[in-house]
Specification:
The protein is an alpha/beta fold. It is 38% helix and 19% strand. The strands form 3 sheets. The protein has a 7-stranded mixed sheet with strand order 4-10-11-1-12-13-14, with helices on both faces. Strands 5, 6, 7, 8 and 9 form a 5-stranded antiparallel sheet that branches. A two-stranded antiparallel sheet has the order 2-3. The longest helix is centred in the middle third of the chain and has 20 residues, at 129-148. Residues 113-316 form the Protein CR006 P-loop domain.
Amino acid sequence: MKDLVLFFAHNGTGKTRLSMDFKQAGKEFDAEGNVTNRDTLYFNAFTEDLFSWNNDLEHDTNRELNLNSDSAFFDGLHELELDAKIESFFNNYVDLKFDIDYDTSTVKFSRSIIVEGNEQTVENIKISRGEETLFIWCFFLAICQLAIDKDPAYSWVKYIYIDDPISSLDENNAIAVACDLCNLLTTEGNELKTVISTHHSLFFNVLYNEFGRKVKNKRYFLHCKKPSGYALQDTNDTPFFHHIATLSELKKITESNKIYTYHFNSLRSVLEKTATFFGYDKIDKCIDGLEDEVLFERALQLFSHGKYSIFDPVEMGDDNKDLFKRILTGFLNKYEFYFPLIFEEVAAAEVQQPEVAQAVAAALSEVVPIVEPDQLNS
């Protein structure tokens, strides 16, 4: 593959908006504002909305998944007959059968079960949200395969943009999806440039390691610095870990002394991850041996279970601020976490919101012009 950009960003940062801006930047318009050309095949929340359920509310028997055939995403669907390609991916995750009716743009699912020693097929089933996510994802992978193979129906694709493909999936499937995606994109002869964004730290780390072994790629941490801007931080050769980023932010917060009650929730979350790693049954084992450990444990329980909304934050009093600092300092001294430079403020390259798509495109070694705001709804 030519180029790959992989970046992590928390929910609410603007990953989906960025993917749409990137897609819009690759469109060409005629004098009347109609789209005449495009260059980005994308997967995001809008892609998932192209699939919707008809649950047959009247009879509750003939359930089917509808495809929005008006979208360019399904160009050439009837002629290409994607069943075999989708099935080759889908069977890696679930034991389900599906049938695509290309004339009506619908999909029906079935499953084989054993009843009294005999195999029976249950037709027209409503699959789970996770299974639906996997089917849509495999549908997308099948189209990606066509684009990589330079099928005429998708010859317009120059970029693949993937945003958070693993909603509703457990960790086992998240790892499997990451590995399969890497195998597909590193297919010999793939000339498409790719951007992948996610809020899922495990998914990010698996992709980071899988791609790192096979292709040259760029990895970033994207986060919102202020209402009008972002920080795009290069992770270099340092893997990104969510708990390290959280601890780094908590350190900065204690230095600024702007400590709010809900920060106890963040600290408790890190302690829970640490306890899980060491096999502890309770988080108090993480602060065992510290001076005032009983007080620390009670404070963590009290403040992290309160109803402290991040939308109406309340700054702590001086005594509680001091208590928070003592817990954090004691925890960090006990476990000696290493904080790589990717989390330092000086490493961040701030970009304004309208320019963030340009920053990602530039990372792909080819700057894509950003469309004007009035074109975003075209």
